[in-house]
Amino acid sequence: MPFNLGPTEMIFVLVILLLVFGAKRLPELGSGLGKGIREFRRSMSDISAEIKRPEEPERIHQPAPRASVPPTAAERKADETQTTS
Q1: What's the pLDDT at 38?
Q2: 34 located within any domain
Q3: Domain count of the chain?
Q4: Residue 27: inside a domain
Q5: Mean pLDDT value of segment 27-41
Q6: Residue 36 lies in a domain
């Protein structure tokens, strides 16, 4: 049993909750509590996964990919003059 409560104590707590909130509100409260617990567990697992993940080095600048554009006529002429010198 949760919190070391016996069946008598659990029934007593449920009766008090029923008197305070009413029969129509108890299912709403239970589903809201369940959603809250699930969201809390999900966020805790996300945080622990973030902590356990190895840190990637930050890159300040990534080199630009080389273009496959053919050289212009002026560039070809400059290359020819450099190789003949």
Answers
A1: 96
A2: yes
A3: 1
A4: yes
A5: 93
A6: yes
